[in-house]
Amino acid sequence: MKKLITFKDIDNARKVLDVPDVVSIEDIKEKHRKLIFEYHPDRYQNSKDMAKYKEKIKEINNSYKIIMNYRNRYPVSFGKEKVKLYRPEAPLFWDCIHYQLTDL
Questions:
Q1: DSSP SS3 for 51
Q2: For the chain, what are the domain ranges?
């Protein structure tokens, strides 16, 4: 039986990836790539702390998996009332909209 993901799990994952409450999928992916690059064990092969970096990579990847799983299953409304509210000039609020809406 799969473990239910709680708000605490998602919030901890968000903090590990250091992303805000409202964030685009592109920004999540970019932050994940940057963290993987920063902590990748191959960069620290001669370090005593190699195990620490391997554990950090596991934590980053697990957090990414939790957040993307949540984001991919969260319903997005393409209803007329929600689409009318789309304002690209307000990116902090609307970053959560993944699709570019044109010709409305």
A1: helix
A2: 25-94
For 64-101, how does the pLDDT look when each residue is reduced to its tens digit (9 = 90+)? Answer: 999 998 888 877 777 888 777 766 665 444 344 444 44
H/E run at residue 4: none
Give, for 69, the enclosing helix (H) or strand (E): helix 50-73
What is the rounded CA–CA span in Å between residue 95 and residue 26?
Answer: 9
Q: Greater confidence, 83 or 104?
A: 83
Residue 71 carries which DSSP code?
Answer: H
- DSSP H helical segments within the chain, as ranges? 7-17, 25-39, 50-73, 80-84, 91-94
